[in-house]
Amino acid sequence: MTNRVTVVGAGLAGSEAAWQLVKRGVPVRLVEMRPAHTTPAHVTAGFAELVCSNSLKAEHLTNASGLLKAEMKLFDSLILRAAEEARVPAGGALAVDRERFSAIVTATLENHPLCEVARERVDDIPDAPCVIATGPLTDGALAEAVARLPGMRALHFFDAEAPIVTAESIDMTRAFRASRYGRGEGDDYVNCPMTEAEYNAFYDALVSAELAEVHDFEKKLVFEGCLAVEILAGRGRMTLAFGPLKPVGLVDPHTGRQPFAVVQLRQDNVAGTLYNMVGFQTRLKWDEQRRVFGMIPGLERAEFARYGVMHRNTYLESPQVLAGNYALKANPLIRFAGQMTGVEGYVESAASGMTAGIALAMRLQGREEICLSGQTVMGALMRHTITPTADFQPMNANFGILDALDERPRGGKKARYERLSQRALETMKETIEKYNP
Fold it and tell me: Looking at residue 1, what is its pLDDT?
C-alpha cells in the first residue's frame, strides 16, 4: 500500500475515519489545526473533543442510537472503544469523562505507526485520496474551497430545523389529511386541528417554555436566517393563528367545520414514515418540545425522530454532490465525514467517518466497496445524505429512516424496535462476512 490518505480534522468523524484506515494498513496523515488555531466551541487540543455533552446517548437496542453503537462495535470503533474505557455512570446512557475519552483517542492515533499527525491549518482541499471531516464550524478559506468543488451549489451555514415525528405515532382520529383548498394531491399534508381553547393553552405553554442555550458566536447567524416559532409567537397571541397555523382553506372532516388553528405536517421522506412540523423551527429544549408539542391534537403520543434545533452548522447540499459511502461524485477518492455531510450528533458523525474510512480503504486496496443496507442505521444515515429532497436537512439516528419491516410484530412499539434491531445486526453481520472489511 503506497497511497497515503490525508484526513483533515481530528474530531469524532476524522478520528474514526483515520482509525479505520490505519487498522486496514492504509497510511494516514491526520491534520488537526488545534492548538495553533481553534474554534469558538473548542477549548482543548485533544482529538475527539466533546464540546457539548459527555453523553453518547442510549445504549439499549430499543433506541436507534443504541443500535447504531452496536453496529459500530462490529467494526471495532475507536470512538466506542475509548468511550468504554472512559465511561462514567449514567443509567442507560453511555457517558464519559470527556478529558480521558479525548486523551485515549489522541494517544491511540498519535502512537500508531501508520498515522502521522500534523498540527496545522488546512485552507484548501488536499490532493486525493483524502477525507474532509472538519466539522460544523468549517469556515474561511477551506469552506470556500469546498464550495468550489464540482457540482457544489451551496453550503449551509446554520441549522434551523423543525421537529420530525414518525407517521405511525400521529393520532389520525384527531388529525386529518388535506391540502389547503384541495390543492395538490388533496392529501399532501397531515393537519392537526385546534379549538380556540386548545390553541390558547398551547400558546401559553409555548411562550413560557424553557429555551436551549445559544452560543454568542451563533446568535447572529441563527436569527438572521429563520425565526423560531416561540419568537414568532412572542409577537402576539394571534400571530401564529394568522401565520403558520392559519386554518383557512381547511375543513376538519371530523367536525365539518374550519378549525380555529391548524398545525400542518409535511411528508419528510420518500417512504412516508416521517413527517416534518411545518414552520416549527425552535430553540426549545428537547424535553420542552416533547411536552409543549405533545399538547397539539393528534401529537399527544408523537414519537420524535428528530427534535427541532437552531445552531451554527456548516453542511453540504449532500444529495447533489455525494455518492455512496460519502464519496464526492466528481472524485471518489475524496470523501467527507461528520456533521458537514448531513448527519446530526456525535455518534452519527463517528459512524459516517467509519463508513468513509472503511470504504476508502477498500477502494485503495482494489476491492469492491462495502455496501451498507438501509436495514441498518449506518446504511440508512448514509442513504439520507444522498437522497434528493426538496429541503435537505441533517438527520440523526432514528428508527424512522430504516427500511420498514415486512410484517408488523405484535407487542407494540418496543417489539417493533427490538425486531428492527435484530434485523439490523443480522444484516450487518452478513455484510461483514460478505465483504470482510
Answer: 43
Q: Are 54 and 332 in contact (CB under 8 A)?
A: no
C-alpha cell at 331: 472524485
* Strand ranges across the sheet with 304-306: 176-177, 189-194, 261-267, 274-277, 164-166, 304-306
Q: Is the dihedral of CA 58, 60, 65, 69 positive or negative?
A: positive
Residue 114 grid cell: 501508520
Q: Which of 16-25, 29-38, 147-156, 256-265 has the lowest average pLDDT?
A: 147-156
* Residue 75 C-beta-side C-alpha neighbours within 13 Å: 34
Helix/strand/coil for 228: coil
Give the pairing type, strands 304-306 and 164-166: antiparallel
Beta-bridge mates of residue 429: none
Cα distances from 251 to residues 169, 255, 256, 272, in angstroms, run 22, 8, 6, 23
DSSP state of 77: -
- C-alpha torsion sign, points 4, 9, 15, 16: negative
**pTM, 2 dp:** 0.75
Beta bridge partners of 134: none
Which strand (E) or helix (H) includes residue 193?
strand 189-194
CA gap 267, 385 in Å, rounded: 17
Query: Could you tell me the domains of the chain?
Result: 5-154+317-435 (3.50.50.60), 164-311 (2.40.30)
Q: Determine the Cα–Cα distance for residues 55 and 51; give it in Å rounded to an integer.
A: 11
C-alpha to C-alpha distances, 70 to 143, 326, 379, 436, nearest whole angstrom: 33, 21, 13, 18
Give the integer Cα–Cα distance in Å for 150 and 108: 35
Neighbours of 429 (CB within 10 A): 12
* Helix intervals (H) in 294-367: 318-321, 346-364
CA distances from 309 to 150, 158, 239 (A): 30, 10, 21
Using alpha carbons only, give the angle 383, 141, 50 rounded to the nearest 5 degrees: 55
